[in-house]
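## retry 2 of 3
previous attempt timed out at serialization; input unchanged, resubmitting
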Amino acid sequence: MDKNHQYYTLITGASSGIGKAMAEEFARRNKNLLLISLPETGLQIQCENLRLKYNIDSRFLEIDLRDQNAPMKIRTFAQNENMHINMLINNVGVGHIGIVGEFTTQEINEMIMLNIYSTTHLTNLFLNELKSYPESYILNMGSFAGFVPAPVKSIYMASKAYIYYFTCGLSYELENTSVKVCVAMPGPVTSNKKMTDRIHQDGTVSNILKLSPEEVAKHIVTRLLSGERLIIPGFLTKTMYIIGLILPYAAVIRISKNLFTNRKNQA
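## retry succeeded, writing output
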């Protein structure tokens, strides 16, 4: 890396779950941070703790990524602060459960803005800067749910399928550049009590596959820095992915539908 630049890792959705765990993991690896999350989510305290614990520069920007102007505001903030972003971690996301036709406009907009719009625009806005450095990274956070459709989570799963295909295409576009691109597709993660309860409701398979945010973050950051394009944390989750590639698509759909039948009745 160019010693004349002070590089930063930008992480969206950094105040909780996988995002918070990745902030800790990057800080442990001596990476300066720019953390992005909603106001009043404890970012200032989080940054101060990471700065003191790991002797890095950790900064934050409180902003609502549901605002269509938020990606440009983040880009402008980084430029004004003379922060050179060489790692872009598009982690923010949300998943509402429900049946199409019964979602509120707000729920649909949140999934589109956080899962698709934010990732796409931040990538587009920071890409030229990332390409100008000797080595840089883009990590887009998908979900194992993005590999196959299912009832009740159809919009969420479709948004994560978008992230998967967007990132795969982008990685080929950037093959001959200094930018390494990868997509992470984790299975069930016990990010908070609400997610832990959902995993429990989903039944045996989800409970067997579940991982903690810390386990997922360590796996993702390690694989990202080694240059992997597709990251699936957890041996059993990756095994399920491989099995899914072998099985006929109709069988995969049927299994997915059966797994979420109980969730459909609860929605």
